[in-house]
Amino acid sequence: MSTAVWESPLLAAAILLLGGCGGLGLAAGRSPRSPRPAKAARWCAGSGGYLLLLVLVVRGLQVQDWPLASTYEMVLLTAAALALGYALGVPPGSAGSGGFLAGLGAAGLLIGALLATPIGARTAQPAPTLLRGLWFPGHIIATALGYGGLLLAGLAGLGRLLARFGAGKERGMPILRTDELESLARRGLAWGYPWLTAGMLLGAVWGWQTWGLYWSWSVKAVLTLLTWGLFTLALHVRRLEGWRGRPYAAVLLAGLVALLWTLAGADWIARQMGTGIRYLF
Amino acid sequence: MSGRSCKTALRRIWAFLCSRRVTAALLLATAAILIVALGVPQVPGELDAAGRTQWWEATRARFGESAGWMARLGLFDLVNTPLFAALLAALLLNNLACTVQRLGRLWREFTQRPVVRLPDGAYRPVGPEAIGLSGERVPSSEQIRRALRRRGFHPVEEAEGRRYFYGESLRLVPLGTLLTHVSLFLFVLAALLHTQGSWREYLILDPADGEGVALVHRPGCRVRNDALAASRAQEAFLSDQVALSIEEGSRTTAGRAWPGTPLAACGANLYYLDGHDLVLAVDAASTDGSPVDVVLDNGPFLRFHGSEEPVDRFAVPDWGWHVTVSPSPQAMAGSPQGTLTLEAVSAAGQMRNEGVKVGEAWEGPWGRLTFWGGQIAEVAAVYDPGVGPFMAGGATLLVGSALGLLFPRRRRWARLDADGTLWLGGGPVEGTQNARGGGRGAI
After folding, report:
1. Which DSSP helix (H) or strand (E) runs through B313?
2. Higher per-residue pLDDT: A178 or B401
């Protein structure tokens, strides 16, 4: 069966659920006393995340291999990590801002992946020989989990910067409460940072086993180090006098931008630089 | 006075070295350099001398006259510039100061008894929902005590009819930030060992070359591609791997390397990077099994180059045969499913077979032709003493960041009066409605 036939409805359902999570998060923020929109937002995020995992599992069964051989699949996994990280890891008190940001963030990732990948290129393929074994899938899964958490933190930083423009204005964004956003950022950093570190370590092991290189200054490695370094900076400054609030949020936003480039832009940069290296993702 | 001002100056220097603002500034500067490195091609560190020369030539051709001043500024090799080295040295110094500071804190953490009771003014009255009890009915003192125990509090003192409780999470958690800082020293050690002691050699191993290739950095060690012998032994074409013989002095060992699974030999690792072209040996035998001579056009083996149309020829004089061999693209790619197309011309006429695989025989009333083969293998021999410290640093960083971020340190104090009033000190209790997840996390 063609990939598009069974996958498209599932992805459409996931987009609707994740978009619904964003909308329900907005509703939860506007009516904080009612727990129902918040619960529904978490349910939508969780369901959307599990649907994405189901898509990946079926793709894997089709090729009898790990479904982790393209940017498209990596983005699906990252969107699932973001949605499930919010649904399972964030306490109900943050449902307003968290649901809004996580839902729209995950839906945005998914829509971006679908727009950027032609239908013909979405067919599941077995991984090239160099990407088989256990180290590479471990590296990808740990990195995706890290991206999920750090995306949440980065989106919280973006929300914090938007909240400034909304505060005190009637047409602002009242659901973006700074205390919720800081809690969201802290939780996103808490589980995203160790997972990204684990992903980098497993990537080093895979590189050593495959090429005898545990580190290189390639585009992908530099982007990953930049992402990791910006979130390390965020961890260092979050309680520093003069850095709290908007400066801290700006660092998180910079980390978010670096992360998105690492996720989807490494190949483009490498081509512009004429390195001759092509990245699957 | 000079002694006091000296002490003050030293304290200021120490405070500067330990300052998180300094860390932040250094991290920002490092990030800026990394962003520049993304905009300018960086010379790959793993290239050998010939590779680096090629790379520089291509870069000069691409950037023209600008290449000169860009190279002088170090833009093509930013991580080896004095500026980057100075940044890393400053980060290291800052890290060292923070680590020493943490050691003192950790020592106090483990040697001093924790404060288990606060001054009475530090407690605030709370309702039973603060420790997860329902607020609908007034709970008894016993219920409150049980709820406190469930939340990790334990009784520490009793005075004037008041019971004092204390609860804390892992005391090892501050160790997490110490570990993350220690990991940086391991990375620096790895970088030093890598710079001083590592080497990498790229070997092109032809299966037809019986002598093999000697390692420059390991005199007395020769590596040979044994694909033909392995193919003959297994009656198959070995794909996605290379069979190697390693001679170390008078000792010869055999082994295989696959993508992702190097072969340890000569004190180094041998990595199979790629295979290309095709080298075949051909055996002819008559119907009774006795060997028949084969005469090849171009040396003792059939050779097929990927860059040209792959064709080679041989003759079997006893049969009056001239045979043309063409491997399929799959065979040229090293797949065991790849086939050979054989066209045999003799006085009796012409025969063709399109489906013979390497390791299989083409049999007929004339006898049997069998082909054994292997690819030219690209192998990297690598020795790097920095790998151990690097992996140890990575594991230490992972454990430290997980400890510090996923298990934030929490300390809670509670007081239960004789009249059943509950008081709490510190943040809200975890797992209750009022908890927003407090505690001091990493760094």
Report:
1. strand B312-316
2. B401
How does strand B411-416 pair with strand B162-168?
A: antiparallel
The terminus-to-terminus CA distance of chain B in angstroms comes to 37
**Which residues does chain B have within 8 Å of residue A93's beta carbon, measured at their own beta carbons?**
436
Other C-beta atoms lying within 10 Å of the C-beta of residue A152 = 31
Give the tens place of pLDDT for each residue, B179-192: 999 999 999 999 99
In 3D space, the residue among A206, A266, A239 whose CA is nearest the CA of residue A75 turns out to be A266
Chain A window 42-81: which residues touch B at a Cβ cutoff of 8 Å? none
pLDDT at A61: 92
Residue B353 region by backbone torsions, left for phi larger than 0, else alpha for psi between -120 and 50, else beta: beta
The minimal CB distance from A197 to the residues B384, B398, B436 is found for: B398
Assigned token pair, B391 = 């992996």
CA dist list (Å): A129 to A64, A69, A132, B338:
13, 11, 5, 17
* pLDDT tens digits, one per residue of B294-336: 999 888 999 999 877 888 999 999 989 999 999 998 888 888 8
Nearest to B26 by CA among B76, B73, B84: B84
Task: Decide if B35 touches A, using CB distance below 8 A.
Answer: yes
Locus of tokens 């006259």? B65
Asked if A33 has any chain B CB less than 8 Å from its own CB, the reply is no
Rounded alpha-carbon distances, angstroms, from residue A5 to A1, A2, A8: 7, 6, 6
C-alpha separations of A199 from A202, B126, B127 in Å: 5, 44, 44
Cα separation values, A120 from A4, A98, A117, A278, B279, Å: 9, 35, 8, 19, 37
What are the tens digits of pLDDT across the range B412-431?
Answer: 899 999 888 899 987 666 55
- Contact between B24 and A214 using a beta-carbon 8 Å cutoff: no
Q: What count of other Cβ atoms lies within 10 Å of the Cβ of residue A206?
A: 23
pLDDT at B326: 92
The tokens describing B147, both together, are: 């709820």
- Is the Cβ of A237 closer than 8 Å to some Cβ of chain B? yes
Rounded Cα–Cα distance for residues B178 and B107 (Å) = 12
Considering the entire predicted model, what is its pTM? Answer: 0.87
Residue B298 CA to residue B288 CA, distance in Å, equals 29
The pLDDT mean for chain B works out to 87
- Residue B50, exposed/middle/buried by CB under 10 A (0-12, 13-18, 19+)? exposed
